[in-house]
Amino acid sequence: MKKARILVQGIVQGVGFRPNVYRLANARKLNGYVRNLGNVVEIIVEGSEDNIKSFSNEIKTKKPPISKVDSVKIDWLDDGSSSRFNGFQILESSSNFSGSSVIPPDVATCNSCLDEVMKNGDRRFQYPFIACTDCGPRFTVISSVPYDRERTSMDVFPLCSDCKKEYEDPEDRRYHAEASCCPICGPEVSLYGEEKINSDNPIKEAANLLDEGYILAMKGIGGTHLVANTLDDLPLINMRDKLGRMNQPFACMSPNIKTIRSFAEVTDYEEDILLSNNRPIVILKKNKDYYLSPQVAPELHNLGVMLPYSALHHLLFTYTDSPAYIMTSANMPGEPMLTKNKEILSKLEGVADYFLLHNRKIINRCDDSVVRFRGGDLAFIRRSRGYVPEPYDFSKINTDLNVLALGPEIDVTFSLLKEGKCYVSQHIGDTTKYETFLYLQKAIEYMMGITRTDNVDVVTCDLHPQFFTTKLAQEFGEKFQCPVWKVQHHHAHAAALSLDWGVEELICIAADGVGYGADGNAWGGEILYSNRTEYERIGSLMPHYMPGGDLTTRYPARMMMAMLYHYYEEDELLELMKSDYLNYFPHGIKEVEIVVDQLKRNFNLTSTTSTGRVLDALAASLEICGERTYEGECAMKLESAAYYGEDRFDIPVEITQQDGMDVLDTSKILLSVLEKKLEGENVKDLACSAQRAVSEGLAELAILAADKIGINNIGGSGGVFYNEAISMTIKNVVENAGFRFLQHRNSCAGDGSVSLGQAVVAALKFNEKLK
Question: Is 18 a catalytic residue?
Fold first, then answer.
């Protein structure tokens, strides 16, 4: 007889792991117990050595569907002559341990639960809060570990006798399913107008109101959505007007894949991710039969679509023939999603006509995740619900260091590294907004609590001295009496990409809107060599002035003027703007004259190498977009115009030397495109050729750098790499030249993974300091 202690780390709490271990042990007639021990699962087991070894292997191979086993450690304790246990038991949780297992993310309602919801006569028939160990909320309802009901927002809903029986039965799939409940003992949903509406079926009533053209605020698992019918322009126009989102695309939800195919193209790999229990929003191409309102995604060739991920969503669609509803985050621009009923009713008054709310507390708000595919490769645009807080593996980098990385300023996530696991937060957002900045601080406090992180060895942040996150980093440095390390924005991009692929060095094409450069200028079209701890800037796009600074990001014709200034006489440039682009200047000809004067006198100008600003200028020159009303609008509309175009123009791709670096002359690209546009050439074809020229130029710069350094890995990072055409062109050029091309696959190409890259740099630099 052998006795062993087995510690299991990974996603092993709240996923039915203990009852699964119980069943495996009983099947092998092993004695002992299993329990949650702080942040790990502990198993004490007695039996033959071979039987215990087989059992420990089954723990990994026969695990519950949403669990993840990172490690199984066996310690042999003694050779007992007889069993000290009577059978195998599941014990209550203990908190006397500090391991590194994690809470699983929220996952979509499973088929078994849906069958019950839709089965007339089942005691959970039409119940919107159904859950079991295989599905339902996790991250959004837990307040602390170990993950037990009394430490979740379900603690105010005592189990009824029937639910308690399931909860206490190890053979039942609801054994210790902490979110389990039923209509008798669980949360309930209510409909509100100006006051609470008495209704026997508030979900059905809400669907009827949506189909009549009203706007609904619907509280869900991790926040609140604004919901509207996608077949009617008017409610969407009203919603845009009330939110101030005049052009921004809205995500929508559709009941099933068949319906999605009626208005969008769906590949096999897109179908797989749509149907996954993560249920992200997936960016799909509109098909030739697209019939939803043009107000869903104005002037774009694609739209964001997701499938229902809660029983509430599924039930809503049982009462409508609508092919899709808008499901967009219910918050004012830049602010966090609303989670509390009183706030939802007060802050969305005048925005939503009706409110479908429930009385379960949302402990952690969590926006929907967003993904898209580029040539079959997955790209995270936003990694949040369904994925957070599952950590990244840093075991080959550092297993002892605690790092808090605070990210950039606008598209913020933070990262917490502990014991070789890096926890990247849910999407936080724009920390220039006070409410979002407070949300960031609360989210950090929560993540440190749930991971039992009492101290931090290093705080890291962006290089920009004026970011709110940079200032917060200094405060944390003082609090924990630890160093604060600043990481250049695009270096962090490169480091996150290197982690994604497990490579130690690469040439990174860092292409985005802006990142504070080491020279104090705005970078955004960079060719970097990175070995993760350090970087060298080897090439870039041609620097251009931004007359009026940030005004250029909103009104891209200003950028266009700066890029053309040295190719046009002042009078010619004024006449061009006056005759073709005057409506792109809010203050008319006077503003155009001021911009020319700024360029002439070198006054109020900042310099940028931003790829985003070049794409904006191209969009403006082709009269595709003259004002950016949401992040990336001009570049996205350029991409959509190019999608319908044909690449048939020879646009010059010229690389020159400037200050010892290879530089792509983007002015000549713009000049060539503009000349052909003024000759009456097709705008969509020009958009296609222009994108290709910029892509080829970036690729050629990277190839020159790779040849110079003698390295085979070339990667792409930054928001520009969400553009499928640009990504695929660069990939083809790089691979045709014999190099390996790397893109983000498990992290975000955009700023959502900057904090992850900061953590990589900090951990490796710390290793070097210890040598």
Answer: yes
- Whether 604 is catalytic is no
Residue 92, judged by CB atoms within 10 A of its CB (0-12, 13-18, 19+), counts as exposed
Q: Count CA atoms within 13 Å of residue 477 on its CB side.
A: 16
Q: Residues near 577 by Cβ (< 8 Å), separated by ≥ 6?
A: 557, 561, 585, 592
**What angle in degrees, to the nearest 10, is found between the helix axes of 683-709 and 724-736?**
40
- Tracing tokens 């931003």 back to the chain, one arrives at 610
Number of CB atoms found within 10 A of residue 591's CB: 19
Outline which parts of the chain fall under CATH 3.90.870.40.
Answer: 189-370
98-107: per-residue pLDDT in tens?
A: 555 578 899 9
Q: How far is CA 426 from CA 135, 282, 586, 739, in A?
A: 19, 17, 37, 34
DSSP secondary structure of 475-500: HHHHHHT--EEEE-HHHHHHHHHHHH
Rounded mean pLDDT, 433-438: 95
Length of the chain: 771
| C-alpha span between 528 and 547 (Å, rounded) | 27
What architecture is domain 189-370? Alpha-Beta Complex (3.90)
Domain with CATH 3.30.420.40 in the chain: 513-532+537-746
User: For residue 43, what pLDDT is reported?
Assistant: 94
**Average pLDDT in the 421-441 region?**
96
CATH architecture classification, 2-90: 2-Layer Sandwich (3.30)
Q: How far apart are CA 694 and CA 718, in angstroms?
A: 15
Count Cα atoms within 13 angstroms, Cβ side, for 399.
4
Burial of 441 (C-beta count, 10 Å sphere; 0-12/13-18/19+) = middle
Are 595 and 549 in contact, with CB atoms under 8 Å apart? no
Token output for 743: 């893109």
How far apart are the C-alpha atoms of 200 and 193, rounded to whole Å? 15
Convert the pLDDT of each residue in 45-60 to its tens digit: 999 999 999 999 999 9
pLDDT given for residue 1 in this prediction:
79
Place of tokens 């006795």: 3
SS (H, E, C) 399-445: CCCCEEECCCCCCECCEEEECCEEEECCCCECCCCHHHHHHHHHHHH
Catalytic residue among 20, 36, 39, 302: 36
Closest of 211, 304, 317 to residue 250, by C-alpha = 304
DSSP 103: P
Calculate the alpha carbon distances from 665 to 397, 565, 669, 686 in Å: 39, 14, 7, 18
Count CB-CB contacts under 10 A for residue 108. 26
Is residue 1 within 8 A of residue 50, CB to CB? The reply is no
Of 624, 608, 510, the C-alpha closest to 559 is: 608
- 101 Cβ contact partners less than 8 Å away, ≥ 6 residues apart: 8, 9, 10, 11, 12, 13, 39, 40, 41, 70
CB 546 within 8 Å of CB 560: no
pLDDT band at 232; cut points 50, 70, 90:
very high
Separation between Cα atoms, residue 282 and residue 274, nearest integer Å: 7
The class of domain 513-532+537-746 in CATH terms is alpha beta
Please, are residues 703 and 740 in contact by the beta-carbon 8 Å criterion?
no
The string of DSSP codes covering 184-200 is TTS--EEEESSSEEP-S
What percent of the chain stands above pLDDT 70?
A: 98
Q: Which numeric CATH code is attached to 387-501+752-770?
A: 3.30.420.360
CB-based burial label for 274 (10 Å; 0-12, 13-18, 19+): buried
Tokens matching residue 595:
């911009």
Closest CA to 355 of 210, 454, 499, 465: 210
Q: Where in the chain is the domain with CATH 3.30.70.100?
A: 2-90
Where in the chain are all domains bearing CATH 3.30.420.360? 387-501+752-770
